[in-house]
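Co-fold these.
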Amino acid sequence: MDPLAGMDDSTTDDDNASQTTEDDPQVPDNHPPAPQPPQPAPQPVPQALPPATSGMRNRPNYELRHTLRGHTQSISAVKFSPDGTLLASCAADSLVKIWSPFTGELIRNLSGHTKGLSDIAWSTDGVYLASASDDTSVRIWNVDSGLTTKHLKGHSSFVFCVNYNTASNLLVSGGCDGDVRIWNVARGKCMKTLHAHLDYVTAVHFNRDATLIVSCALDGLIRIWNTTSGQCLKTLAEGHDAVCQHVQFSPNSKYILSTAHDSAIRLWDYHTSRCLKTYMGHRNEKFCIAACFSVTGGKWIVSGSEDQKVYIWDLQSREVVQILEGHEGVVVAVATHPQQNMIASGSIEPDLTVRIWSDRGSTC
Amino acid sequence: MNASLLNPFTVTHPTAVQTSLVSGASFARFDPTGKFVAAGRSDGSAAIWDLDTRAVIRWCEGHVKAVTSIDWSRNSRYVLTSSKDWNVIIWDLASPVDPPQRYNTIRFDAPVVSAYFHPRNSRIVLALLSTGEAYVVDSRKEHRARVELCEALSEDDDDERARSIMTTARFDPSGRHVFVGTSTGNVLVFNSRMKIMVARHRITGAGSMKSLEFAKVGRRFATNSSDRTIRQFILPTYPSPIVGAECAGLETELEPTHRFNDPISKVSWHAMSYSPDGEWLAGGAADPATHKIYIWDISNDGQFATALDGGREPLIDIHWHPQASRLASTTNQGSVLIWHCPSPERWGAFAGGFEEADENVIYEEGESEFDIENEVELAMRKKLQEDEAIDILGGVDDLVDHKMNGVAGDPGDEDLEWADDEPDDDWQGWRLKVIMVDDDDAY
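Predicted complex below.
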């Protein structure tokens, strides 16, 4: 997206903030992209808290560990590598930065894109990283060498979101032209284009066995696709005030989690099209803010907010259980560590930091 | 996990060609996960296709003569190729290189007609040579052996019958027994642990046996023989043989439950394959001019269901997908056709909350359907509904039976314990590494 994403309220931004499901030709420059967390490993860490099923609920106790500075323009996504040893962040300054989440050190810059970045995704083995850019291409990087392995060209407009399947032989990307493309990773060739939406595709995600793709767009619709045939299987429509900007499958792929501009995060049963849970309390009316599952300790939902904080909800009770304060800008990107109780969050201008929070003591 | 979204009807048989993999293949085999297809070629190589990307992801190049059979280990890590060059090669797909590393090479002194992994342990291989001999090769440290399966002959046999040629050999799905078809129309059953013959079944009128096929569920197997008939049998149970007992096993005649043939053109059959649930049997017709797959409905008393037409290139092999309603059929030009069951596009799916009705329905309003309800009450009800506990982690079916590896299901079952001894490292969670292909590297 535009590097100055969401900076000036004087232009078309307010129109977008109240965007309806109608096709909107304006360029919503104010939507920093939405990151998805890596598929969390299903096994909990040894010190994991017992599942909060009893009356007494455990609360998380996250504290700020590191503040990573280096990006010069708005951060759009943060992602932990699947083994948890690295953290990648991308920003409108067209760089991907690889950090150590434990020490907060910058390890490497991946540079090559000519315009700002909107999203990144790790391959399951952690060797490769895919990045989606406003230069209308996706690059696959070898993270160790820092070189581009594949340069995927085909989108006719900004690429807004990208994700791998579990086998990491497929990549799915969504662009501002409303198309979803499925790529053969080994060859770097586009296999299929789904004319999925009429507006910016803001998130795409594979389910566990890669038979389904979920996508959402600023036209307010969440659609589920058959990966092999490219057929649309289902459309979930939220209310008119609830333009959806981020969507992903739950770790077991039975539900989908979506965030929307009515300041609500919803968990859906996509078989019955029923909204099972609604998480509220934060503010999200304008930006593309991501949410993710935290499964390493208690079961939480984590999301950024426009009031410069990170919110943590209890998955079952839907209560806000902790609010992380410290950022000085809108928090658009969050990610949870696959094995440990650790959260990374990224913020746009003027803050420009990635912050790492961790929960060390298992307080009850 | 998404069956209810993808497939509104129960699994049925495939009906249309989905894609054609130009592979120069003489036959193709799905792997047990159903994600890959291995195609054996007459130039001695085998290509592993990824069905997601429909591209070759590995070339197994090691034989100098035609590949005659391919088998996958149960979690798809190892691939076995047998060849007319007298070798069986076992490839390890977990090696992140192309061609994959050889895990083992087993050398025989005649061309190998077919070779199979033991269903529970890929260290045990059954090989059939073109000379009509079958061997069980065990490469485990404690059991290292190469044993020929010898037909036990009773004393009153004539000299002429002294030795029949073995024409096909398979493990049964449990791995307890080896079934061998002979040129004289017999099916011999051996205990795979002790390599002792436990039964000899005479199949009247069958002539030389061409192939054997087992249904994965249900105790059924089918034979294809030179009399152009596919016969289906109920799998008998066999007692464990007693060591040292002078016993040639049961000598019985098996009566088929069904006979399948083409009554009009009387074609013979190149291959047959059961559907994963055993409800359908597909036969590949050895017609020199057409590509015909006959499908019989086993659950409906073996009734002929349909004949699929795959075009002009004659068929030489078929194989059914291990889980889904898909088939791979190979043409004599080397293309592998993947058949599937197309589902019609549902345009109603593009509109949220929209249901397509087949016919006009007169809508009957429910008693209180449009009543205005108290909003507080509605919010309360929604809140109560949302209190339902949700499991976002569990119920995942693709990571369940980790324990299946190594530990026998049935303690005390000597045959299974024997097979599970020294398990291979074909564990379930392994992943095939994606190898990046250079842009100018054309396959």
